[in-house]
Structure formats: C-alpha cells, structure tokens
Amino acid sequence: MEFYDYFVVFITSITSIIVALIGKDYFRKREKKRYTDKSKEDLLEQIEKDEIVHLALRDVRRQFHADRIYVWQFHNGGNFYTESAMQKASITYERCSDGLERKSEKYQNILVSLFAWYMKQVLTNKAYYSNMEEIEDIGIRSICSGNGTRSHVASPMFDDKNHLIGILCLDWVFTPVPTELLTDGNFNQEFIDEVSHLSDSLKSYL
Question: Which of 117, 118, 94, 120 is nearest to 107 (CA)?
Fold first, then answer.
C-alpha cells in the first residue's frame, strides 16, 4: 500500500471518529435539553396546581370566616430498625388571617403514630369540633388550645384507591364560627357535606 493510500485511510478514520464524537455530543445535548425542558414543564405544572390550591383555600377560608385553613399530606419518612416504614405527615398548604402564626412552619415530618386517636376521628368523619372541650384526647386538646384554636374541623382526602392522602382542616381562632354553620351548637350536616365535597375536589391537585 502506497503512502497516499495510508494517508486516505488515516484521514477517513480520523473523520469517522470526529463525526462520531460530534454526533454523540449532539445527542447528549439534545437529551439534556429535553430533560431540562421536561423538568421545567413539570415545575410550571406543579406551580400552577399550587396556585389553584392556595386560591381555593383563600376563598374557602373567607367563605366560612375561618382564621386558618390548611392541608396535611402524608408521606414516607424513612424506616425503623424493624424495616417497617415511618408514616409521616406535613402541612403543605396554609392560609391564615392577618396576625396569626403559621402552623406549617412548625408541623413538618410529624409521625402519624402520635395522633392515633385524632386520625381515627378523621377517618370516621367525626373530626368536627365547635368547642375544643369536646375533644376527648388530652394531648390533641392541649395542642389545639396551645395554638389558640377555639373550633376545628378536619375532612379526609382519599385517592381513587381509597388511600388516605391528606386532610383538609379549618380552625377558628379569633373569630367565632358563623351561626349558619351550626345547629344546636354543633356543626350541621350541610356544612359537613360541603367541607367533604371541597376536600374531594382538592385532592386531584395534591
């Protein structure tokens, strides 16, 4: 093989390597851009959902003249040494009256096992307390009183597989519960049904 032939083979090989490297880099950049665009799209979609939830909570709080409205969401929190999962909850959305301390800043990664009695009341749709003295559990009553809560309601949020994914809560702190929400001093069924419908509507945005 003459020098010219070797030279052609050499140039062809170098060219092929360069083309391959350029092609690889091109597809890598395209893949990175697609991933970045998808991440941005997902983030914008989540922000839109968050805005809808916050606006909905604002309107519901005003509608019922509550001082605080918030959503608990359940999530995994690691594992115990026994390998069983830690079930935790955090307040993820909250709207408050002016001058009221936000609970969401304190209540993050809370073990669900600490609130067994309360969770049972929520699951059976009995967590509607126009008077905090009605709460039988001393620990729960103490926490609510410590937050200045005078009246409290909580409605469970289930997914399509009937798994509990969240709780919609309303507190009255400065403001008394509107009389139209009460019958003989207790929250009436019409109000309970309305809160249940609201929590069911919000679940698709969580």
Answer: 94
| 199 within a domain of the structure (yes/no) | yes
pLDDT tens digit string along 65-86? 999 999 999 998 788 888 888 8
What does pTM read for this prediction? 0.78
Q: State the Cα angle at 82 between 78 and 83, rounded to 5°.
A: 45
Distance of alpha carbon 140 from alpha carbon 144, whole angstroms = 6
Residues linked to residue 73 through DSSP beta bridges, in sequence order: 90, 166
Within a domain: 35? no
Which domain CATH number covers 135?
3.30.450.40
Number of Cα atoms under 13 Å in the Cβ half of residue 103: 27
Q: Rounded CA gap, 204 and 199, in Å?
A: 10
- Least Cα distance to 118 among 107, 1, 197 occurs for 107
